[in-house]
Each structure stands twice: as C-alpha cells, then as structure tokens.
Amino acid sequence: MNKKIITLALALALPLTVAAFPGDNGGFEGHHANRVERLTKSLDLTPEQKPKVEAIFKEQEEKFKIIHEETQKRLQEVLTKEQMTKMEDIKKQRHEKWQKKHEALKEQTAPEQAK
Asked: Which residue segment(s) compose the domain that 30 sits in?
C-alpha cells in the first residue's frame, strides 16, 4: 500500500518538479517567454494574441503551484517523516537524472546548431 502511495505521489510530483527546475532558461518566466516566442513564430500569433497566451501560461503556473502545495500538504498528512525524506531523496535523484539527460541533449543539439 505504501509503495502505491509513494509511486502515485512521485507520478504527481515529478512533472511539477521538472517544471520547478527547468534549467538555465530563467525559471517559469523564462520558460514561458521562450514558449511564447516559439509559438509566436510557429503559429504567427498576432500582437493581440501574444499577451493573452502569456496570461494563460501565467495562470497555468499559478495553478501548478497551488496543486503542488496542496499535494505536499496532503502527503505530509499521510506519509511518515521518514517516508517524506525518502520521497524527497527519490525526487532529487530523478531530477539529477533528468538534468544529465537535458545537458546531454543540449550538447548534442549545440554542434548541430553551429553548422
């Protein structure tokens, strides 16, 4: 039962963890600014659409924060301190693994972009 709870908690928390540690692009604001710029180019957003899209991403960020905080609070009510510590360790390991993959991908794409 505890393994199922931890697995579920990680499944819910991992996307938020990745979003909370996006790398070198300036956090959520940088991430959303980059996304909006890409969408502006690829979808040919109008000047009227661009601030509306930015507002949608800002609202999404706020909702993610609320969900993350609520999830953490509920997990603390269910899990023991030892389990919470272990879950945090697992999240850190997954984040480090993700970071290594992300850095390797950046290194692979950097030479291609230089061509």
From this structure: 2-114
